[in-house]
Amino acid sequence: xxxxxxxxxxxxxxxxxxxxxxxxxxxxxxxxxxxxxxxxxxxxxxxxxxxxxxxxxxxxxxxxxxxxxxxxxxxxxxxxxxxxxxxxxxxxxxxxxxxxxxxxxxxxxxxxxxxxxxxxxxxxxxxxxxxxxxxxxxxxxxxxxxxxxxxxxxxxxxxxxxxxxxxxxxxxxxxxxxxxxxxxxxxxxxxxxxxxxxxxxxxxxxxxxxxxxxxxxxxxxxxxxxxxxxxxxxxxxxxxxxxxxxxxxxxxxxxxxxxxxxxxxxxxxxxxxxxxxxxxxxxxxxxx
Amino acid sequence: xxxxxxxxxxxxxxxxxxxxxxxxxxxxxxxxxxxxxxxxxxxxxxxxxxxxxxxxxxxxxxxxxxxxxxxxxxxxxxxxxxxxxxxxxxxxxxxxxxxxxxxxxxxxxxxxxxxxxxxxxxxxxxxxxxxxxxxxxxxxxxxxxxxxxxxxxxxxxxxxxxxxxxxxxxxxxxxxxxxxxxxxxxxxxxxxxxxxxxxxxxxxxxxxxxxxxxxxxxxxxxxxxxxxxxxxxxxxxxxxxxxxxxxxxxxxxxxxxxxxxxxxxxxxxxxxxxxxxxxxxxxxxxxxxxxxxxxxxxxxxxxxxxxxxxxxxxxxxxxxxxxxxxxxxxxxxxxxxxxxxxxxxxxxxxxxxxxxxxxxxxxxxxxxxxxxxxxxxxxxxxxxxxxxxxxxxxxxxxxxxxxxxxxxxxxxxxxxxxxxxxxxxxxxxxxxxxxxxxxxxxxxxxxxxxxxxxxxxxxxxxxxxxxxxxxxxxxxxxxxxxxxxxxxxxxxxxxxxxxxxxxxxxxxxxxxxxxxxxxxxxxxxxxxxxxxxxxxxxxxxxxxxxxxxxxxxxxxxxxxxxxxxxxxxxxxxxxxxxxxxxxxxxxxxxxxxxxxxxxxxxxxxxxxxxxxxxxxxxxxxxxxxxxxxxxxxxxxxxxxxxxxxxxxxxxxxxxxxxxxxxxxxxxxxxxxxxxxxxxxxxxxxxxxxxxxxxxxxxxxxxxxxxxxxxxxxxxxxxxxxxxxxxxxxxxxxxxxxxxxxxxxxxxxxxxxxxxxxxxxxxxxxxxxxxxxxxxxxxxxxxxxxxxxxxxxxxxxxxxxxxxx
Lengths: 288, 804
Ligand SMILES: Cc1cc2nc3c(=O)[nH]c(=O)nc-3n(C[C@H](O)[C@H](O)[C@H](O)COP(=O)(O)OP(=O)(O)OC[C@H]3O[C@@H](n4cnc5c(N)ncnc54)[C@H](O)[C@@H]3O)c2cc1C
Hints:
Largest sheet of chain A: 5 strands, antiparallel
Strand order of the largest sheet of chain A: 4-5-10-6-7
CATH topology of the largest domain in chain B: Aldehyde Oxidoreductase, domain 4
Number of strands of chain B: 28
Radius of gyration of chain B: 28 Å
Shape of chain A: globular
Oligomer: heterodimer
Strand order of the largest sheet of chain B: 3-5-1-12-9-10-11
CATH class of the largest domain in chain A: Alpha Beta
Structural class of chain B: alpha+beta
CATH architecture of the largest domain in chain B: 2-Layer Sandwich
Helix content of chain B: 25-40%
Largest sheet of chain B: 7 strands, mixed
Number of helices of chain A: 11
Bound molecules: flavin-adenine dinucleotide
Strand content of chain B: 15-25%
Number of domains of chain A: 3
Largest interface: A-B, 25 and 26 residues
Order of helices and strands of chain A: EHEHEEEHHHHHHEEEEEEEEEHEHH
Strand content of chain A: 25-35%
Radius of gyration of chain A: 19 Å
Helix content of chain A: 25-40%
Structural class of chain A: alpha+beta
Number of strands of chain A: 15
CATH architecture of the largest domain in chain A: 2-Layer Sandwich
Number of domains of chain B: 3
Distance between the termini of chain A: 54 Å
């Protein structure tokens, strides 16, 4: 049985963050991770359950200067259908399109996906290759305090992030991709819907006259957190995407990851797939 | 009033047979109004929960339930000690509902609680302290038969080494088993040595079939209530109410006449509800002790852990043929992983040996099974009952033999396929047999022979997507199966004075559409619309005896029974009408709710009016009939020979796949099926049945697997136990071969299990056609296929072994 004593549904950010002050609070967004995890006894609901769904500051997708801001409460469905995202961040749509099922997408939020910090979280890989940063809000004194950090430094382990207990994730910010930007995502599971990634790959960069630069590569489900792949990025940086390069980079990628065996796949298979899918994605990029 | 006075009105002939008729329970189910066991609550009801073992194989040193008993809201806490009259249950009577002294698998029941709420019952379970002493775990059946292997069911001894009180009984649960062999089956016809000597080609391979489970949408559950006189009322999802009534009575040591079973609408049952499981008996003990109704419902995790699986099998098959394509012999050895206890899974050889001996004409056949105890989950019956496993091996060998002798695989099958009139080595008599039609129809509609060649030619072309096509066929009982003293079903039929029919049948509805098809058969006889019927089929106090829903028997057996009762009613009505209208009975018929002239369709009288005339007169009478149908099949002899079913169903399925060689992912693109169903009764129902079966077979082939490591289930949830989801379902083209079985109701045969049987075998053949790689172990998950494509799957060989 949980220790749940209070239920709180704040209607603005100040109330929400203030409630977090005493620390003994479980945050509820879409509940698609929290519900199964608490029922299975893997997560304990704390004294206060705070439903943040009525905090309007946490919703919506907007263009702010040269950044796109996606509020933490934005659902996967909303992201998929959003015109700004479709136009500027198609790789995020690609990832959302492989996310769970319609029912889950209607409830699951991007903030929940980030805070749940699963190595297989499907929006995390595109967010990493898009250089996203997370904004956190808290109330150390009487004032609301916000700060940001790059998503690439946010994750520290399965389900573990740098967010402190009294912080709320308010949004992610993604710089508008420059001209000639390309980005692709691939998720590999047993079946096309409702599956947890065995591995996932995101690749992004600027493609000019066949040369890829500003390269970002990220892998999911091969490490305790979603990870950037610096060695693979380096091998790709400034290269022309010909067959030889692609073959070489695929090998670098395979050597770079150190996955584990679990119920979903063996380490051997994961490495093979990192190789084959990296190769496939790069061929697709080369053809654009 | 005479016939001549009636205004002439003609009713044109019409039939319900072969029409697309909506399932009678569909509106309720689709609108969420069906009341499953989950929705039934009795006043004063308590909630039961079971404490399962924390260990896989261990001695129970002590159980302390004092804290649980002290928890407020807890009414009853029981362990084996509190139920001294426990009797062993199961097919081999090899376990007690509440385990005594020892646990043998992860699901083992140690204690049970009945409390005011589910939450309190859960909390009470957490307060029970059990001390265990671990024993070595046997999780591999090959280890279980090694000399000196630890025994799963040793003779019980007390702490001081003396025999325990359990010894006084005579069952395995009481006196133990000196080895780990739970059951053996040995069958032969002809002489395999001779057959092998005559062969030009001989092949031998080991196949491994995995654990899968039913995944019924409705989890297991029941409610038990004893009345003040000690009579028991059970709300139960059983598929076999009448047999279970008797069995429950044995476990409670009461007269079976005091047990009444009501089956609420059942949320799926593919054989999982054919045996009595510990939770059911435990629920009875709780209700008996609490003197209150007790409801017990599984969680989904429990459903995975503690409901029966399909039978995992290790199988070595040796087959031969001549150059001209004549099969010469088959020799089969299987090792069935029985799990810790014996349920129906151990008896799947009954069906498996039929496939080996009789699907094709094979003059010599030798079959052996040993089902052995391990510390794994135990297998029960599951749609297809061993036939998926047998067909997986046989149909791969059919392709491999054809390849060896350079014959087209379809031609090879046609050459050895059974025909009507055949009596097989096992004594099965094929009165109707559409097998060859199934083969040619499925092949033609899928363009099989051309595609086989084309795919082979394309194998080595560049590109990571390889296409493949594969075929497999099946034989299954389609006219019941005479396993129990009777394979019959009773019907009571009554008509009210508005010409509505109430059909009271022993046959249970478990979602397969039996209510609808039985209604159709009755209305067809009585010339009534389907809206004129009410079916009562779920209460042992009302319905006549039936052996249960299994063996694809309900349409055939209960259908014939219902027709029998309807024919009697019709005869009575026509006799009354003939007398009243002074004509011969044979001049009359029933159609559209009227008595009509058989020759012209001219209305004689409205049926409801005739029935009222009959009822409201001096010598009042009602139309009420009964019928009991027993199929003309026989029991097998000691050598497993005999014509056990009144009819046999046939089918061929062609599966097409795309294999992604980069990932090992197999996409099933198309399934072409041709099924000899005798005759299509409800077209909508049979299409649903076949499509559902194909998808179940697809899951068996591609995605589903219960992962058991050292006796521990790794994936008791739908996240990691992967059922097929909607986007993966292939295009299907299903053809029905109507062989018009002479004994079948309107010519129909049973088809419930048939569609699931061939898919995995045909998929294996399709993958091989696509890639040239043969796979002997299921399921074909991306990683397994990828490994096989990269030569990373060592070929397994299991040396045939036979229990002494
Ligand atoms: C059937 C099913 C299929 C799934 N398939 C996928 C899939 O394909 N891909 C995938 O990536 N995931 C999948 N998931 C997981 C889940 O849906 C996602 O991780 C989802 O994005 C979580 O969002 P939520 O709003 O439901 O989070 P919640 O469950 O509400 O919260 C998740 C965690 O984050 C915390 N949290 C939420 N919002 C905030 C915030 N703003 N600030 C601080 N902490 C917060 C919560 O306290 C909790 O610990 C699946 C889940 C289910 C049940």
